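@channel anyone free to eyeball this complex?
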Amino acid sequence: MQQMISLQDLTLWIDEFLRNLFGGTWALLIEFVLIGLALLVAYAVLALFLIYAERKICAFFQCRIGPNRVGIWGIFQSTADMIKILLKELIRINRADHFLFRIASFIVIIGSICTFAALPFAKGIQVLDFNIGVFYILAISSLGVVGILMAGWSSNSKYTMIGAMRSGAQLLSYELSCGLSLLAVVVLAGTMQVSQIVEQQSDLWFIFKGHIPACIAFVTYLIAGHAETNRGPFDLPEAESELTAGYHTEYSGIQFGFFYLAEYLNMFIIAAIAATMFLGGWMPLHIPGWESFNKVMDYIPSFVWFFGKTGFCIFLALWVRWSFPRLRIDQLLNLEWKILMPICLINLLLMSVAVIF
Amino acid sequence: MKALYNYIKNIVIGIYQLMQGMYISMLNMLRPKVTEQYPENRGKKQYGEWFRAMLVMPHDVENHHRCTACGICMNSCPNGTIKVESNMIKDETTGKDKRVLNRYLYDLGSCTFCALCTQNCPFHAIEWSNDFENTVFNCQKLVLKLNKEGSSLMVKKTENKE
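replying in thread with the prediction:
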């Protein structure tokens, strides 16, 4: 573990430098601003990259090439899209509830950014590290549904209303199996602090350590998390063929961009949480007893591990998205209440038994 | 008990079938891509005989075509795209009247590429080319004269060979 590059040294050095220069209070304020800025930039850059990656992978699944005109291999396609979306007009909707209409997109994106802040990106890079980290993640990530319901209600349109209602039903029910499968990990780890959970996977990742219950929890979390991002076979809230675009039909310009951004980053967040909880986060693959193998693995930087595992989970999500047809609303709720939740509850019991004995 | 057994059996079957679906979509992903990179592969790709881009009249090296100006193509064309203008001249050897092609006019603007003309031509005088870049700036330029300047009918010997 000693060889791994820790970015904590860098952050501590910046902290000390600012404290010497400005003194306690000002240094703290400046750090807040710096961290906020860094988070927002990371958020935007990741979103651009994710949009590009998604379009490319979707194209591959459909035997197409995908964006390939803007820049080499089309890598600036999403940047061009961003500039376009920034230049668009914000259309004022007739007889809409303008206050709710305007703040809905902000609530969605605030929920997404606050969850984003709690992710451990690399060794020593984690903004929020509470002792109730998992609880915080679950709570704040379900803030988005409020924004979605607001957007659907305030747009004064039947499509957005139906989309938002479906989204509400879907998110509220899948939140349960999401939480229950994460609880299985909490039972295994014995802590809710995200950094502790990652630290405990230094000898072996939880998906291997936790035997069958951890594998089941991983799969159920991926399914439930996938449903929470409103994508893939669970994209009822924005079913293009029936509801135009669902809850964000009436939005334009950067407000639509916020929904778009939040959707992609939610996909990243779900994948990152799955990677952190089950696949060890930034922790390299360590196998007890194989000392030289572990040392070689330590030479790979921690953020490469984190983004590699997250990328793997994102690819799984896209793979599922292009494989399965969309579910009906009753099938969707059947899947959650009759199949996923019983499995999660039994799995939690199994995990407790496995931890005790 | 039976219900529980069925419940678990359905879940297992469902997972197996979902895995099958994912396997198939993965095979699709690994397949070669079918997108045409148009301006880059310009002129490199031949689409074969089925591709109906424009009507042409093939000429051999001695500037001979096979059109006898019988007008079957003109009559079979449903929207009057083809106009065959012919002259009657007296044949020196036999002394009979003979129809000779003067101008073969083809209006690309009204052609629906139904290929009735090429199917009905008894002498295979006209065929379709792969040359699909047909855009011009005004519609007068869409009316094309297919027979080349100074061309004449192929001699009968080669015709019989066909």
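from a first look: The mean pLDDT of chain B is 84.
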